[in-house]
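[job 0412] stage=fold_complex status=start
inputs:
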Amino acid sequence: MTTFALAIAIFAVVYVFIIWEKVHRTVVALAGATLMITLGVLHQEQAIEGIDFNTLGLLIGLMVVVGIAKHSGVFQFVAIWATKVAKGNAIMVYALLAVITAVFSAFLDNVTTVLLMVPVIFVIANQLNVHVKPFLVGTILISNIGGAATLIGDPPNIMIGSASGLSFNSFLWNLGPVAVITGFVTIGILLLWYKKDLISHKDAAEEIAKLNPKDAITDWPLLSKSLAVLGIIMIGFFTHSATGLEGATIALAGASLLLLFTLNDPEHHLQEVEWTTIFFFSGLFVLVAGLEEVGAIHILAEKLLEMTGGDLTATTIALLWGSAVFSAAVDNIPFVATMIPLVQDVSEIARIPIEPLWWALALGADFGGNATLIGASANVIVNGMAEKEGQKLGFLSYMKTAVPLTILSLIIATIYMYLRYLV
Amino acid sequence: MAPKSAFTVKKYMKSEPVTLSKEASVREALKTMIEKKTNGIVIVEGDQSVVGILSSWDLIQYLVPDYLEEDKHLATFESSDQFEKRLKQIGDNAIDNCMTKNVHTVREKDSLMAAATILSEFRIRQLPVVDEDSKLVGYLNRTDIKQAMGEALGL
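[job 0412] stage=fold_complex status=done
writing structure:
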């Protein structure tokens, strides 16, 4: 077998196994990556060069910081406080929690956001005596939309940011507006959709008035340290186009600073990093490097351009919708890892500007992930937590709400992309 | 000093352990625990082979929803009627859902030190005692070991 066919075969088998889900995706990705080397598609040096350590460092740094910060209770404080501000009016609570989810997921990883929000949502739904499902569906949709707004909000954006060299501010400036518009439209429609489910119990207001959000904060010193470090990290990102510091440096500097501040057992905090995710990324990067090495990505890029005639508008819109369809069907992380070199090739071959293509890929992958329960990691986690409490969302019943809203978000994204970059 | 063989599981175990099948409900298990004044039930199948153990600890863990276990900041905010609501929800569920399935057991002929080691190592509170064919013959808990410790010191 030629190395060309071999690389494609390994990649295809890995993809099938990832979709099949019988073997853990990290194990599959690592096995595939090592096969790329042992069967001679890549040398070890090439494989290591293929791994984007900036993405990994950024993820690890943020995981350490959030892992420590969440022990202070600050995130729960904000959610309970919002419920209190809404005075137990279920519709207001729903809207405020959605906005909070959007903001959290813009600055934290989506999985972290939903792990923080879902328990609060259960508690609040119990207090209001309303169904929890509308809240859970909303959390999935809004976390993926909010995550699209920044470079650090969603794994696809982190990878795109690292590969493209586009700055944090550039992501915020280009993707922020469309994420905000889509977010508000989605919340509005969700409220109309679920209006009759969101009638709170008459005693709820009284019960909720008794809650003291400050009870959520279990460690005040840790709270101030975490907020200080989160602030420093944000300043680092807002200024990194001027300072030239890359994402991994900023996040890992924040992580070391918080570890220094808290002065306790780094072993424990480092164990909290989701290493399976980090290894999954590493494996994918090597697999994609294998495809690039044999020229398969280049051929795919040429095929895409054949279809769109090399026209910027057609290519961008095709990329947006194509990414959305793929991300709905498979996890958007492997998809985006494969698309990154492809987008670079497309721009080079057709001599079209690359920036709109990056935004189309990010929006397609982030928004498209909303369509099904397996489209993004956050979806899988929310459904898993719901299932444990006997509140299974149901694959098809989730899609009944999610697919129309995903299509609507993509229409908004198309109009936005067209007006801003393509006219 | 007592002879070397005196402190065996056989001597201190209870020979009539409280048992239920795994199909029994949470409600039945609670009723049994309250009536028999015990915190541990051995779950058996067919001809007395041990398939699990259910302690009041398992029931407490089952009562607390996972979302609260994952987030210690939230328990104070949980609605106060959840205790009752949740119990009514889980009352008819089979104890198969909450029993400990990975059961440590001892043999009658084992020494009390061996039994104590297992209790200490795995931080558990009771041990089913089985015969050569892994059939349940008795039950040993902390109280039994405490009794033996007292006897060893001649108290």
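[job 0412] summary: The interface with chain B takes residues 73, 76-77, 80, 115-116, 118-120, 122-124, 126-127, 129, 207, 211, 215-218, 385, 388-390 of chain A (CB under 8 Å).
[job 0412] exit 0
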